[in-house]
Amino acid sequence: MSVRLPSATATRTTSTKATAAATTVTAPPAGLRKGDSGPKVKQLQDALLKLGYLTKAQVNTGPGTFGAQTEAAVKKFQGDKKLPTTGYYGEQTQAALKKALAGTPTTPTTPTTPGTKPAVISAPSPNSDSRNGADIDTIVMHHTASNDGKADLSWMRNPKSGVSAHYMVDRDGKIYQLVGDDKRAWHAGKSELHGVPTDVNARSIGIEIVNDGSGKTPFTEAQYKALTQLTSHLKEKYDVPMKNIVGHADVAVPKGRKNDPAPNFDWSRLRKGIS
């Protein structure tokens, strides 16, 4: 009985397919940080190797161990993708990694620069702490409960107040930055996002708008213009979905505890300006 051997071409094709299947690299589940180890970390390292953020030599020195080199690679990737450079592999970093693996060149590329950040006035507040690795995926709008920007700014910078926000937009459109984006400001209190209890402060940027919140005091043209520029920049920089640009009233628990940014705030104008 004669046996028909496969042709060389068929053998090469089969071998190529097997190799391709074996070298398929995907993004691991989110939730990895320095000190972790195991196959998920190795999967992350393989993805970073494919994208050029780690070398084979670096991976071989600690396969499956989330050490200093892996953390540095994650931070570099986050920086290139305009994400907070925490070194923590969270949901937003995972999403960016998936996109990068789905057809991106194997070397880091220069990402599109987010919309220009409007001019801000530095007014540091001590009222902040660590995000503990949480990715920014939400923007929360507030009213200051007064029409006196100077007094509002002073209160949020007072250590005794226990409150702060990342930004404050005054009546004249001037934007003050009290807390760096990488820090957790104290603005949302007990809260939930889309009905799910969560630490909104840890995952959000808080913006205070100088307004008494009565629904009778109009927000100024200058405020809408500044707020649109700032929100557009933050939305693009942190890839915040439109549904996560909310008011304090939308996240405060229990429902009805807050009415921010105010009943007369023109949400449609803001959303049209940043869409």
TrEMBL record:
Keywords assigned by UniProt, alphabetized: Cell wall biogenesis/degradation, Hydrolase
Report the record's Gene Ontology biological process terms. Answer: cell wall organization; peptidoglycan catabolic process; peptidoglycan turnover
Composition-biased stretches, type Low complexity, lie in 8-27, 103-116
Looking up SUPFAM superfamilies in the UniProt record yields: N-acetylmuramoyl-L-alanine amidase-like, PGBD-like
N-acetylmuramoyl-L-alanine amidase domain location is: 125-262
Q: Where is this region: Disordered?
A: 1-40, 101-134
UniProt superkingdom:
Bacteria
Similarity comment: family membership: Belongs to the N-acetylmuramoyl-L-alanine amidase 2 family.
Q: What lineage, starting at the top, does this entry show?
A: Bacteria, Pseudomonadati, Myxococcota, Myxococcia, Myxococcales
Q: Which GO terms describe its molecular function?
A: N-acetylmuramoyl-L-alanine amidase activity
**Annotated PANTHER family:** N-ACETYLMURAMOYL-L-ALANINE AMIDASE AMID (PTHR30417:SF1)
Question: EC number(s) on record?
Answer: 3.5.1.28
A Pfam family name for this chain? PG_binding_1
* UniProt name for this protein: N-acetylmuramoyl-L-alanine amidase
The cross-references to InterPro entries, in alphabetical order and at most eight, read: Amidase/PGRP_sf, Amidase_domain, NAMLAA_amidase_2, Peptidoglycan-bd-like, PGBD-like_sf, PGBDSf
